[in-house]
Design brief:
With 316 residues, the chain is α/β, with parallel strands linked by helices. Helices cover 49% and strands 14% of the residues. It is built from 14 helices and nine strands. The chain has a five-stranded parallel sheet. A hairpin with a 2-residue loop joins β4 (157-164) and β5. α2 packs antiparallel against α5 (60-80), α8 crosses α9 and α10 (207-218) runs antiparallel to α11 (241-251). The mean pLDDT is 94.
Length: 316
């Protein structure tokens, strides 16, 4: 049997109309999961992802629970169809919570509460600091670090995520991120993209938010994951509840080391990677790597194709 890893996307993968092909099949697992989530956040999430408004869906507190619920719905559907279990799991930023739910380390109801409050805390930080996140395309890490150093004399700009060899995300005060982006352009970046995230995630501005998140996590029961979950900040899997909570607390203001996570999965001789979520962001990041077979579950067609390849041993 070929080994595979499941990858769970983070904030920015949300859009109005996501998962629509699953709902067309009157899939009760999806409806039940969204009803469950709506109860905990006191908002009709199913209506929100189907109809919008987009501005509401893009608010951190709602986008984060919507993505978490989408990923858990797809995972539950996978297991309901007797889909094989992955050898490793990892989630990008917010996706780490989805990964922990699907590995039975955190109850879905607890994750919903944490993620909803996490989003609110992040949103509040953004109100005090006009912020921006940008993806820098096609220059190396050292040049991005140099650009951030130049721009961070008075304001905050941090390396938010090392996504691949040719994509690095920066985050922080709006003016500093904008300035750093201009320097990156001078240093040879092919493209600078503003991300669909309205908070300074994974920047030093999030340190006060981390203290609030820490208190929420201390009240949450976290179990040893049934499937190893590679975390974002240390690129390692933890079994100890205290260590998992510590990593989640640091994650909110630390760099997401995604490229290293993908490298670690490959070092374990796992080259089939399945993105479990409403978009293909993580799948697209892997596409330049010829060794990796990248599969997604963002719609019913892709889900069924991926299911067939992984569960029938057809990896052509």
């Amino acid at each position: 049997m070929a080994l595979f890893a499941m990858l769970f996307p983070g904030q920015g993968s949300q859009y109005v109309g996501m998962l629509s092909s699953f709902f067309k099949k009157n899939n009760n697992i999806f409806k039940y999961t969204f009803d469950e989530a709506s109860h905990y956040v006191n908002h009709n999430l199913l209506k929100l992802i189907k109809e919008g408004p987009k501005i509401k869906l893009n608010e951190s507190s709602y986008s984060q629970v919507a993505i978490l619920t989408s990923s858990v719905s797809i995972y539950r559907f996978w297991k309901n169809q007797n889909g094989k279990s992955p050898s490793l799991i990892s989630g990008h930023s917010l996706g780490e919570y989805s990964a922990l739910v699907c590995s039975n380390a955190i109850k879905f109801s607890d994750a919903l509460k944490i993620v909803f409050l996490r989003g609110k805390i992040m949103q509040k930080t953004a109100m005090n600091h006009p912020s921006l996140m940008q993806a820098i395309i096609d220059i190396d890490k050292k040049k991005v670090e140099k650009a951030c150093l130049i721009a961070s004399k008075k304001k905050v700009v941090s390396l938010a995520s090392i996504n691949s060899n040719n994509q690095i995300v920066i985050s922080g005060d709006k003016s500093a991120v904008y300035e750093a982006g201009l320097h990156c352009k001078k240093f040879g970046a092919k493209c600078i993209l503003n991300l669909n995230i309205n908070t300074p995630a994974h920047s030093q501005l999030m340190k006060p938010a981390a203290e609030k998140l820490k208190k929420i996590l201390q009240l949450t029961t976290i179990y040893s994951p049934k499937i190893p979950v590679i975390n974002n900040v240390d690129v390692k899997y933890e079994n100890n509840s205290k260590n998992i909570k510590n990593a989640l607390t640091r994650q909110i203001y630390s760099t997401v080391r995604w490229k290293e996570i993908i490298d670690l999965i490959q070092n374990k001789k796992i080259f089939i990677m399945l993105e479990v979520g409403p978009s293909q962001i993580l799948t697209n990041l892997n596409k330049k790597n010829k060794k990796i077979i990248s599969l997604s579950t963002n719609n019913l067609k892709n889900f069924l194709e991926a299911f067939q390849k992984i569960n029938k041993g057809n990896h052509e």
